[in-house]
């Protein structure tokens, strides 16, 4: 039996993205600790239910703040000295970087990381992001040198880290199909009686929120009855949309805002087509996998992490990033040819079963970490 410590940057992700993985670790006889900043009671209760022990840790997810990040590193080292894990598994940028360094300083025998997306530091959307990117790359190069294996969620990110020398050997990289999706929990649902569209994301510009809203405006001039729904929260991120913009979209009737939902099943079931016009440096968007599993066609961008989820013309459409006109054309296709929704939805479900079943993804991770 091993003692495993899992560290993530967002508390909700411990259940949404890693819950099934940790549950399988527990079922294999391992003791599992899950760590993140400020988990609400429902997350703590959900972790306890699957046999995982929660430990809070202070991590500021955004930006480079040397003094606070140093305190984070010291906090993680102290946590490792107390728990004495045999295995460390980190995901998202700061848990990977500071968790890996702390693991080395604490003599943790086995260290693994998952690059679940490149994030703001690699977005190159301004001077600030470029500076942060340079610092992040140097920290990644150091931290990942302490890892036995590094998991990647799409081949583009794996190739980038290899070519930039952020991992020293191709043999250290392991490609997995995102975080996977529980196809027994996310099952096909009947389509609503009228065509509607849904986007689930952190409300940041790079997720294509403005493009989605602009496309909705154009479509609603021609088809005022078509609904465009939005789920998510305004994130603490330099590219976050403003609350003023969000309220104006709601007031003008362009979108229906459903807020932040811990359970997205009802929102997906009440939609016909899932849309994610992201130009964010994704790993593999989990919301897309949930939509696939529930048998929804997907419109997304031909960008790393997104392009792997759609066979263009078979289970949805791949469009160029930041291209509102192509997004409008893809949306209009489904409005004009509603019979295609069910056909493409069936293909989506098959892709989820064949490629993104969470148990298949977990098997690769657990076998690599020798925790099966």
Q: What does this entry look like structurally?
A:
Helix 5 (93-105) runs parallel beside helix 6 (127-144). With 372 residues, the protein is of the alpha/beta class. Helix content is 43%, strand content 16%. The mean pLDDT is 94. The chain has helices spanning 11-16, 19-27, 41-49, 66-83, 93-105, 127-144, 155-163, 209-222, 243-251, 265-269, 286-293, 324-336, 339-355, 358-368; strands spanning 3-7, 31-36, 53-56, 87-91, 110-115, 149-152, 173-175, 196-200, 227-231, 256-259, 273-276, 298-301, 316-319. The strands form 2 sheets. A 7-stranded parallel beta sheet has the order 3-2-1-4-5-6-7, sandwiched between helices. A 6-stranded parallel beta sheet has the order 10-9-8-11-12-13, with helices on both faces. The termini are close together.
Total number of helices = 14
Q: What would you call the shape?
A: globular
The chain-level structural class is alpha/beta
Question: What is the typical, i.e. mean, pLDDT?
Answer: 94
Architecture per CATH nomenclature, i.e. the level-2 architecture of the largest domain: 3-Layer(aba) Sandwich
Helix and strand run? EHHEHEHEHEHEHEEHEHEHEHEEHHH
- Note poorly predicted spans: none
As for the number of domains, it is 2
Helix content range: 40-55%
Q: Return Rg in Å.
A: 20 Å
- Name given to the CATH homologous superfamily of the largest domain: Glycogen Phosphorylase B
The side-by-side strand order for the widest beta sheet comes to: 3-2-1-4-5-6-7
Predict the CATH topology of the largest domain: Rossmann fold
